[in-house]
C-alpha cells in the first residue's frame, strides 16, 4: 500500500526534473573537468541545494544483501546538508581513482537517482568501490557499524579541508567525559566526539527503558565505578572508586542516535530486543537533560531543538534480517519508506510502527534514529 | 473502474490536460482508447527496464492486437475513419519503435502515470466538492484510515502478484534457454556462438535476479504496511474490549463486532494470500537457483515475519463476544449460579476456515487456578467442546456459542462434607474470581495453532441472595482492573476514584431504568459517602463500598435495594424523571422551603433498604414551614399498590377535619395529577352484564395526624370500598348499573347526567352520587365534616345531604327539610350513629359529587365569555351546599322562599361533569371542564327551580368540548388556579350564547331562592332511558345536561385515558376523591 502514491509523487515532477537536473549535471561535468572558481562553485551548490528530490524518491536496487547499505545511502542522500557538501568534492583525476573514491561514487549515484526516470537505480558501482575497502557485498552489516565505516571513508577521501570540516560539523556530537575520584575528588575531564549516541535500551538491571527520553537520561546519568571497575587515581596512588559522567557539549545539525537493540549479554548469544520504545517526532534536549548533564552555553542549548528526519529500521533476527529506511523528505516534509527498490509514501503512523512490539519479534524496529536540528525560529 | 474510463469522466479542465498529454506523443489517443484495458493490464514500467525482453513482446502484442481490431467485424463501414486512424497509428508505431521497444514501454508507462496524476487531481477536486455537501454518516478518522489502508493493501497485493507472475514468465524463459543452450559437458569454449549464448544466458540471469530482488522488496514493503494496518486494527480491538468491559457494567456503548470482523477478515485474507505468494516464491527457487540467490536468504525471513504477524493477528482475533451470563440476568453478566444455566460465546474475527478441517472449540473453567487455599473448584457439567463445522454459519462468522452451560462445585473428597468452613479461603465466595477459557484448534492454509481467549472474571454463587454482593464485586473489578487474568484482585482491592465510581453507579441506574444519575444525585451520594463535596481525588475503598455501613447495611446494599425497587416498581417514574430520588434531608428542605403548601417530592429513604417516600411542605399560618414525610414504601407495599396510585389516593386524616391529600404539587411545581395522571392505574373494566356479588375495592393510603400530637404520621391501609365498575356508565346496565357519572338530580338545583357511550341516560336510584369515600374506618368520617349546611342564613336552609343519611340505599328520605329550611340543623349533626350507618352502604356511593357553595353576596362565579367560571368559595360565608342523590331527592328540599342561599351546586361526576347552580343574585353558571355535561339552573325570582330548557342543555354538550378541559377542584374550598383561567374558547360561541340568556333570565330573581322542584324531575329522571336523548322527556331534558355521546371528552370505554386532557383527570376513569374542605363549613 502506498506504493502507488509514492510513484505518483515522483511522476508529478517528471518533466521539470529532467531539464533542471540535466543542467545541474552539466555543471558538474564542468566541475569535473576543471577546477572552477569559487563563485561558480557556490552557484552550483545553490542549484543543487534545491535540486534534490526533484525527481522524487528513488529506490536503490538490492545488489546482494545491500539493504543495509541502501538504507544508509538513502539517509545520506536525502539529507540535503550532506549532498550540499558532496556536490562540492574534488573529482579524482584518473578513472582508476574515480572508481575507488567513495564520495565520488556516491555523487554519481546521486546524479543517477536524480536524472533517471526509473523507479530505482542500482548502486552497483558504489558497492564495488566499497568492496575495495573491505565493505563486502553479500554480507550482513550492522547499520550503526556500516554508518561509521561509510562516514569515515567519505571523510577520509574528501580532499578539501573545508569540506572535511563541514562534514565533521554536520555529524559530530561533542561530549565531555568526567572522571572524578570519589576519595580525593580530583577530576579529569576529556573532550571527545562521537558520531552516534549509542543509547542502551535497558538499564543496568536489565529493565526496559520506557521511552527514548529515558534512554537519553540513562545514557547521561553518572555512573559509579566501583569494585572491579575502579580506576587508578594518581593523587591517591591507588585504585579508587570513580564517578564517571558524560556531559553534552555540542549537538550537530544531523544527530544520529543508535538504539542498542542487539544485546550481547550472556557471552556468545546475541539477541534482539524488540520491545516497545517510543520516540518523539520533536525532541528538545533541554527538556530531557538536566542542567549538570550539559556543558554548553545558552546559545548552543537554544539550538537543541530537533525533529525526526529518518529512521533506519531492522526486521528479522540477529542472524538474518532486513533493513529499511523511513525518511522525511526535507523539501516536501513527507515521509517515505525505502525498501531497496520499493519506495512509497507513508505516514507518521507507519513510522510509529517501528517503535517495536514485545509480541512481534520479526517486525520492523527502529535501529538508527536521525534527528535534524530545527531551523531557529 | 478502468483508468481510461475514469479519465474520460473527468471535468473539462482536467480533460484538457489529458488532451495536452496526448498531443505531442507518439501513442495516438485512438490506440489508447481502442486497447484501453489491455494497455492498463500490462506492466510497462518493468518492460521499460533496459535489457528486458518484455518490452519487445509487449510491443508486438500491441501491434497484433491492433491488427485484430482492424480486421474485426465490429468496426463497420461507419467506422471507416477510425479504421483509417488505427491503421495509420499502427504503421507509425511500427516505424518508430520497432528498433527500441523499451522506449515505447517507457513512453506508455509515463503516460499511464501522468494519467493517474491528472485523475487524482481531478478526483480530489470532485471529492472536495462532494464533501461540502452533506454526505454519508461521518466515520471516524481512524475508520477512514483503516478503510483506505485496506484498499491500498489490496492494490499493493495485486501489484505484487502481477510482479510475481512476471517473474514466473522470466524464469520460465530463462529456464528454457538454459536447458537448450547451456551444455556444460562439452568443451565449447572455442565456439564463439556458444560464448555468445552463454553471455546472453548470463544477462537473462541478471534480469531474473533483479526481478527476484524486486519482488522481495515489494513484499518487504507490503509487510511493513500491513504491520501498520495490523496495529490500527489491534488498537480498534483494544477499544472494543474496553467498551465491552464497560458494557458489562451497564454502560450504553456499542459492542457490535461486525466492522471489526470485516476488517480482520480482510487483512487476514490478504496476509494469507501473501503467505501463499511467498510459498510460490519458494517453489520458484526449487526450480531455478544460483549462487547468492536472494530467495534463499530472504524468503524464509519474510515468511517467518509474516507467520508471526498472522499468528498474532489470529490470536487477538479470537475474542469472547458474549461474556458468561445467566439468561434472566442479562444486564448483570458475570455472576453465575451453580446449577443454573448460563451461556457464553466466543468469536474468531477472521472469518476464514478450511472446509475440510473440523475445528474444535473447547471451554475450560479455571485453567490456571490461583494457588490459594480454599479456592473452590468447579466442573462444567454440560459438554465442554463443540466442533465448529465449516459452513455452520457462513453468515454469522466463526462463532463458538455455548449455551445451557451449568457449573457444579467439585467437592473435595478428602475434606468431606462438613469441612467447608475449615477449607474456607481467605476470600469470601463473592470475591472469588473465576475464568472460562475458550480454545480453538485453528487450521488454515497450512497454518495450525491453538487459539485461546478468556472471559472476564466472574463470580460463582450458589444462592440468589449472594447476587447483589457478587455484582458489587464484578463492578469493582471491571471498574478498576484492566487485566482480566487478575484473579487475586480482591486480595488487595484498590480503592475507586470517585469520578469513575460515579460514572459506574450512574450506569447501573441507566441500565435498570434507562435514566442515569444526575449531577445532583451524585453530589448527594458523594456527600453521603465522603461527608463532603467530592474532589476528583476522592476515593472509596472496597470495604466502605460493599461491607461497612452505619445503618446496618452497606452503601452498595442500600443502592442495590433502590435499584431493585426501581426495577420492579418505579421504572417508568424514574425514567421520566418524576422521582427526585437522591435528596438529603437538608437539601430537601432547601428545595421545598420556597414552594407552596402541598408541594412534594419523591425521594429514596436513607434509613430503609429499598424504600421510597414522599416529603411535602406545609406552611402553617404562623411559624416556619413544616416538612412531612411518609414512612417509606418498600417493595412489599408497592406490590399491592403502585406509587402513583398511592400519591393520588393518599389521605391525611386530621382530627376534626376531612381527610385530605396533602400531596398537591410535584416539585417544583407540577400539579399532582398532571404529573402522575399517566401512571394512575386503570380501573378494572367489569363485565356489566354480570351481576356483581361483591363490590370491588381498592386500597388507598392515608396518614392520620392527631390534633394534639402534631404530625405524627402513621400510615394505614384503608380499604375504601367502591364499586368501580358501577361508576362506568354502561348502556346495557341501565337500571341497575350505576352510572357514576350520573349526577343525581337535585331538586335544589341541578343534575348532571353523564351518559356514557351510547347516549342512554341511565339513572339509578338508590345510589346517589355522594362524596366521601373514606369509608372503611368509620373514624375517617369526621363527624363534623358532613355538616354541610350552613345555617348562617336564617330561614333558608339547605340541605345538605352529603354523607349521612342518603347513602343508604334504603335509608331514603331521612332528610327532609321541610319547607322550612330551618330544619336544617338537624342534618348537620351527624352523629356517630350515622357514620355507622354509612358503612354498609357506602360501597354504593359514588364519590364524585361535590357540592360547592358560593357565598352569598359575592357570588364570584362568573360566566363571562372570556374568563369563565372561577369559583371561589369563601369559607365562612357560604350559604349552603347541597346535593343529593336521586334517592334522597324526594326528601330533600329546599325551603321555598328561603333566603338567598345562593345555592350552587357543583357536580363533578367522574371528573367530568360539573354542574353548578347558583341561585340568587347572580345566576352563576359554572362550566367546568370540558367533558361534562352540565347544566344548571338557578332559581331566581320565581321561587322555583329554574329549569333549564331542554334546548339549552342539548346545546351544552356540544359546546362542552370546546371548553378547555382544565379541571377542578377537588372538593376544596379553593379552586386551583387552573380553574381560574378556564375560558371559553372562541369557537364556543354557542356556549356563550347559551349562557347569556341564562344569566339574564336568572338575574331578576336574584336574591330569592326558590324551591327547587324535585318532583317534577324525578320521575323522569329515574326512568331508564333507552333510546338516547330522544327518549328523554322534556322535563328531564330540562334539568339535565345531556352529553353528546360522541363527545370526545366523554369517557369511552376504549379510551379511558384521554390524552387531550392536559390537566387533571387525564384518565377519565379516575375519580378524584372528593372531599369537602373542612374550611368550607366553618
Word description of this protein:
The complex is a heterodimer of chains A (377) and B (1082). Chain A is of the alpha+beta class and 377 residues long. Helices cover 37% and strands 26% of the residues of chain A. Chain A has helices at 3-12, 14-33, 38-51, 67-77, 80-86, 95-100, 102-115, 124-132, 143-157, 161-171, 212-219, 285-288, 298-302, 348-352; strands at residues 59-60, 120-121, 173-181, 187-194, 196-200, 223-225, 231-233, 238-240, 242-250, 254-260, 262-263, 271-272, 282-284, 305-316, 321-328, 335-339, 342-346, 365-373. In chain A, strands 5, 10, 13, 14, 15, 16, 17 and 18 form an 8-stranded mixed beta sheet that branches. The longest helix of chain A is centred in the first third of the chain and has 20 residues, at 14-33. Chain A is globular. Chain B is elongated and about 135 Å long. In chain B, helix 9 (141-181) packs parallel to helix 11 (258-287), helix 10 runs antiparallel to helix 11 and helix 27 (950-960) packs antiparallel against helix 29. Chain B starts with a helix and ends in a 43-residue tail after the last helix. Chain B is α+β, with helices and mostly antiparallel strands and 1082 residues long. In chain B, 39% of the residues lie in helices and 10% in strands. In chain B, the strands form 7 sheets. In chain B, strands 17-16-15-19-20 form a 5-stranded mixed beta sheet. At the A-B interface, helix 1, strand 15, strand 17 and helix 14 of A face helix 8, helix 9, helix 10 and helix 12 of B.
Give the strand tally of chain B.
22
Give the largest chain-chain interface (CB within 8 Å). A-B, 44 and 47 residues
Largest sheet of chain A: 8 strands, mixed
Taken from the alpha-carbon principal axes, the silhouette of chain B is elongated
Poorly predicted sequence stretches spanning 5 or more consecutive residues of chain B: 131-137, 415-423, 707-1082
Going by helix content, strand content and strand pairing, the class of chain A is alpha+beta
Task: Give the assembly state of these chains.
Answer: heterodimer
Q: What gyration radius of chain A follows from the Cα positions, in whole Å?
A: 22 Å
Strand content of chain A: 25-35%
**Rg from alpha-carbon coordinates of chain B:** 46 Å
Question: So what's the overall shape of chain A?
Answer: globular
Helical stretch tally of chain A = 14
Roughly what is the average pLDDT of chain B, rounded to an integer?
65
Strand order of the largest sheet of chain B: 17-16-15-19-20
- How far apart the termini of chain B lie comes to 93 Å
By secondary-structure content and strand pairing, the structural class of chain B works out as: alpha+beta
Estimated helix fraction of chain A = 25-40%
Strand tally of chain A is: 18
Biggest beta-sheet profile of chain B: 5 strands, mixed
